[in-house]
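Page 47, continued from p. 46.
Same chain as before, 116 aa.
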Amino acid sequence: MKCKIVERGCVSTLDHLKEAIRRKRPGLLRRGVVLQHDNATPHSANLTQQWLQRYGWEILPHPAHSPDLAPSDIHLFGPLKRHLGGMAFETEDDLISELRNWFDNLDDDFFRKGIK
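Result:
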């Protein structure tokens, strides 16, 4: 889901989030959802946090610049997101299989660029 920046004349990120969830995933508007986000300002804004608490979502703590991610890992996110975009998986094993295939087919140059 792409978030829109809060600007004059644009829909707010919170309104966009609400609409996207209601339209695409109405079952998420219940307790028991665990969310981890990147602490971007729209995600950590008071209004957004209050709205998420209203539905009893648990927010996992994840400090900005967390040391559990190597800088070279960040290089993976965009290409992986583009690869998985639009795919649906029946089982966790199907997802793991697809991820293994994707990683196996990356050339060495991909990782060299990411490390640099």
